[in-house]
Amino acid sequence: MRNDSFTQLEKPSHQKAPPKVMNVVVLVKQVPDTYSERKLSAADHTLDRESADAVLDEINERAVEEALSIKEAQGGEVTVVCMGPDRATDAIRKALSMGADKAVHLFGEALHGTDAPATAKALAKVIGTVEGVDLVIAGNEATDGRSGAVPAMIAEVLGWPQLTFARKVATDGSSVKVERETDAGILTVESGLPAVVSVTEKINEPRYPSFKGIMAAKKKPVSALSLADAGIDASEVGLAGAGSQVVASAPKPPKSGGVKVTDEGEGGVGVAEFLASEKLL
Ligand SMILES: Cc1cc2nc3c(=O)[nH]c(=O)nc-3n(C[C@H](O)[C@H](O)[C@H](O)COP(=O)(O)OP(=O)(O)OC[C@H]3O[C@@H](n4cnc5c(N)ncnc54)[C@H](O)[C@@H]3O)c2cc1C
Fold first, then answer.
1. Rounded to whole angstroms, how far apart are CA atoms 117 and 103?
2. Which of 101, 143, 229, 254 has the fewest CB within 10 Å, making it most exposed?
3. What is the residue range of 214's domain?
């Protein structure tokens, strides 16, 4: 469900052109479930994805929801694009069961440990294999890598405008307008198409896949692309192609019990002293 007060792209009825169908690509990532323990592998300090349950990143469910709303308003097609291990097909099927039409899955052992810039270049190549893309919708930040940079980097590689951290999106098929909430206020950003948009958790409430949707998703086409199929050289991705390396990692120290202040009349002073010692005062 979308909060739709933001539609200034509307033209007076006598000038309304038929809605232009749109080809929307949604970038989805499979991430470790935030409720399962996430740890880094001792071998290469990358995320140990096997040891945790994996889910479709929730922010990507919202990106899918936004794409489906645009398709319902404009007509057209929604293609899911995912770069990930074999088991990322579960996340892809979830997006298809919500209503997306088809998917492209870039897979390959060599992708292990790929950094954010190389991820962006690889995804840009995959987007290039999808015909006539009008709009790319991504999440503003993945819950595992959390760089929040991939959508902007993809726009840079494609040479397209980027409209990031959107809490509202409106398009009429020839331009797109987003509303971004910042500490300084609400910004309205607009550009022509094609473009890359990233959405925040305030954008919508994702629909739950219906039983019919789950069954239909099993038959929807998923094209599995190897690095060679996508024209990606293995030396450009993975740990081999990474510009930055995690060279050391240590588990987060267990949370300490905290400081207990017993109030025998001076409790307030005790709290103030603690806050001062933590430089919070
Ligand atoms: C703990 C940790 C630390 C890391 N530190 C760094 C680092 O300092 N520098 C660095 O370059 N890399 C780093 N990485 C690697 C980086 O996380 C990966 O390259 C990742 O694939 C892309 O970055 P992100 O998850 O931060 O993406 P974000 O930019 O946070 O993702 C935003 C959106 O982009 C899209 N997207 C991102 N990845 C994919 C994908 N694989 N398939 C489809 N869509 C996708 C999704 O829509 C997602 O919601 C780190 C990874 C981990 C796990």
1. 22
2. 254
3. 22-236
Count up the domains in the chain and report the number: 1
Q: Where does the chain show beta strands of DSSP type E?
A: 22-27, 30-32, 54-56, 76-83, 102-106, 135-139, 162-171, 175-182, 185-192, 195-199, 222-225
CATH code: domain of residue 43:
3.40.50.620
Judge residue 164's burial from the number of C-beta atoms within 10 Å of its C-beta, 0-12 exposed, 13-18 middle, 19 or more buried. buried
Q: Residue 281 falls within a domain, yes or no?
A: no
Give tens-digit pLDDT for 126-179: 999 999 999 999 999 999 989 999 999 999 999 999 999 999 999 999 999 999
- Say if 263 falls within a structural domain: no
Which residues sit with their C-beta closer than 6 Å to ligand 1? 27-29, 47, 57, 59-60, 63, 82-84, 114-117, 119, 123, 138-139, 141-142, 144-151, 244
Residue with tokens 């692309």: 225
Q: Does residue 201 lie within any of the structural domains?
A: yes
Q: Report whether 103 contacts 220 (CB < 8 A).
A: yes
CA distance 9 to 279: 49
pTM of the model: 0.88
Asked, for residue 6, whether it belongs to a domain, the answer is no
Residue bearing the CA closest to ligand 1, atom 33:
139
Handedness of CA 69, 167, 211, 213 (dihedral sign): positive
